[in-house]
Specification:
alpha+beta, 3-stranded mixed sheet, 51% helix, 17% strand, elongated
């Protein structure tokens, strides 16, 4: 009985120390991004047009991004927002090469729509 209690006490202590270590990790701070998006000066996914032409452009770009096996998951999760034939690309990418490739893919898939590349390379700020 004493061994069981001792074992449970040790496990509890280990669990608490692991939990404390997890809490010490720095949380990501995206406050500036959130404030920028709430300002109304930048396009967000809520600005996506529901016109069939704009939806087709967004869908074509998204499908082309997903088909590219060289892009990171981060790059495939960028925001693609189309309003009146104007495409805005927003979000983080890992490298300048990824940014250039996404821009090329979007231009190719958009069928002549104008592209506003607002992608951010992680760590470049």
């Amino acid at each position: 009985m004493k061994r069981t209690i001792l074992a449970l006490a040790c496990l509890s202590a280990l669990s608490l120390s692991a939990f404390a270590a997890d809490n010490e990790k720095a949380e990501p701070d995206n406050t500036a991004t959130n404030e920028r998006d709430r300002s109304g000066e930048t396009k967000t996914s809520g600005d996506q047009s529901n016109s069939s032409a704009d939806l087709k452009i967004t869908q074509a770009i998204r499908q082309a991004l997903m088909k590219d096996g060289e892009l990171s998951t981060t790059a495939k999760n960028i925001k693609v927002i189309t309003v009146n034939g104007q495409v805005t690309l927003r979000g983080p990418v890992k490298t300048g090469q990824e940014k250039a490739k996404i821009d090329q893919i979007a231009k190719s898939a958009a069928g002549g729509a104008q592209i506003d590349d607002q992608l951010d390379v992680k760590g470049s700020k």
